[in-house]
Amino acid sequence: MRPLELFGVAKTFTMHLQGGVRLSVLRDLGFSVAPGECVALTGPSGAGKSSVLKLIFGNYRCDEGSILISDGANAVDIAQASPRQILSLRRRKLSYVTQFLRAVPRVGALDVVAEALTDVARGAARERAAAMLTRFNVPERLWNLPPATFSGGEQQRINLARGLLSETPVLLLDEPTASLDAANRDAVVDLVRERKRQGVAIVAIVHDDPVREAIADTCVDVTRFAAAA
Amino acid sequence: MSAIAGEEPLLTVEALTKWYGRQLGCRDVGFDLYEGEVMAIVGESGSGKSTLLQLLSGQMEPSGGRILYRLRDGNESDIWQMSEPMRRLLFRADWGYVHQDAQLGLRMGISAGGNVGERLMGVGWRNYGAIRASATDWLERVEIDQSRIDDTPRTYSGGMRQRLQIARNLVNAPRLVFMDEPTGGLDVSVQARILDLLRRLVANLNIAAIVVTHDLAVARLLSDRIMVMKAGELIETGLTDQVLDDPREPYTQLLVSSILPA
Fold first, then answer.
1. Which end of chain A is more exposed for a tag (fewer CB within 10 A), N or C?
2. What is the ipTM of this complex?
3. Cβ separation B1–A58 shorter than 8 A
4. pLDDT at residue A149, rounded to an integer
């Protein structure tokens, strides 16, 4: 099988605090990603692009359909998996660069990044984290400071360094180049291309047209799977 | 579907129920906890989360249900079917309990080093030098200056007391630690330090933990899984980020939407 396959995925939110309003976001969503392929999700704001990434990561519950992540000879269906299975996949198979960094109080930038490598010895993890921060032009004087007070662009680069460090076979990117300058945008493009050459399957949301053209092989228009209102 | 091979739960809880006379404490709670896994129990006052923690930690006998614990030899044992001495030994050697109020978890009249060392003596350590060295090491890990090792916790600030209580509970390498609002009642700046310490220590030592908190940010930071309690019942459970970001039950949605952004 391919590293990531989605079939018949549907998602509806029931808002109990708003009188039980049901908000259907996606219906019958299906696509798959080959090793080394980058699929870009397109569609206007509110079409459900970020929801697709959150469903794949297991951050949102999937109501219908299946989301298969290849794991050795098997496939794990995120839609049915136990919390332990999802956590295990996130350590080994699946990484997700969110739009915003969720900063942990008191933890320095280097450790925030290094923590992405849970199964690597601390010293080695910090070395790789340092190399990644250098790649994203984060000055060394910031490495030991907690990122909570950093600028938006700096936080996003920490977030990217963290999300891109672990080299899992499936990578989810939500607006990786928003709030970055040209040099750092190029650094992201280089790194994504490198991951593709390594055979990583990527799903990305990219609003910046030149960046999308530079990294995406296929586009999936999410509005095609919008649930009828 | 690939299960995670060769591992069985550390703790298996089945249909746990507690009645206080006709008043319900909690009803029909069941879950598994695996080695190294951190579970948060959230809910408002009166939801039954403290009752549940007291039951799970063996401080109170349930009205119904079972708590099975996997001993170091691999055998599973019902904690209320064990002999009293066996249960006490288990609590001393395998479990820890961090109280919200550090005074309940510390001996206020003996030195910080003594507070930590006592736990080691409780599991058979006799060499004074080794006990002292381990106590010193643990005070350092919880960021208490070595010069304070011979002072009693009476002379410590609230945050230091809580860190000392954590050291006392982790020094003998427990496999399961219970925590009741570990950062409740502390200043926000002190809270952050304690949370970061707990998060690191629990992860590095691969300790399983059950943390009761009413603070969803604490749950998000510390836990892998979450259980939401309401009126004595477990109403929603799952991966922590999933329950907090995509809550299903009306009450969970209310809890999540009631947080004021900082």
1. C
2. 0.92
3. no
4. 87
Instruction: For tokens 């609590």, name the residue.
Output: B91
Distance from CA of B93 to the nearest CA of A (A): 27
Residue B2 is predicted with a pLDDT of: 39
3-state secondary structure of B240: helix
Structural domain boundaries in chain A: 33-62+80-225
Would you state the pLDDT for residue B42? Answer: 95
B187's torsion region: left (phi>0), alpha (psi -120 to 50) or beta? beta
- With bands split at pLDDT 50, 70 and 90, how would you rate the model's confidence at B260? low
What pTM was computed for the model? 0.92
**Ramachandran region, residue A20 (left: φ > 0; alpha: ψ -120 to 50; beta: rest):** left
Residue type, B104: L
pLDDT digits (tens, 9 = 90+) for B198-240: 888 888 888 999 999 989 999 999 999 999 999 999 999 999 9
Q: Which residues of A touch B (CB under 8 A)?
A: 13-17, 54, 58-61, 71-72, 74, 76-77, 80-81, 83-88, 104-107
Beta-bridge partner residues of B20: B23
Which of A14, A71, A107 lies closest to B2 in CB terms?
A: A71
Chain A residues with CB under 8 Å of B34 CB are 84
Q: Quick check: B199 and A104 CB within 8 A?
A: yes
**Structure-block tokens of residue A19:** 């009188």
Query: Domain residues of chain B, as ranges?
Result: 11-103+174-257
CATH topology of domain B11-103+174-257: Rossmann fold (3.40.50)
CATH code given to domain A33-62+80-225: 3.40.50.300
Chain A residue numbers with beta carbons less than 8 Å from the beta carbon of B249 are 16
Question: Residue B193's pLDDT is what?
Answer: 83
What is the pLDDT, as a whole number, of residue B5? Answer: 46
Give the 3-state DSSP-derived string for chain A, with helices as H, strands as E and coil as C: CCCEEEEEEEEEEEEHHHCCEEEEEEEEEEEEECCCCEEEEECCCCCCHHHHHHHHHCCCCCCEEEEEEEECCEEEECCCCCHHHHHHHHHHCEEEECCCCCCCCCCCHHHHHHCCCCCCCHHHHHHHHHHHHHHCCCCHHHCCCCHHHCCHHHHHHHHHHHHHHCCCCEEEEECCCCCCCHHHHHHHHHHHHHHHHCCCEEEEECCCHHHHHHHCCEEEEHHHHECCC
CB contact under 8 A, B250 and A84: no
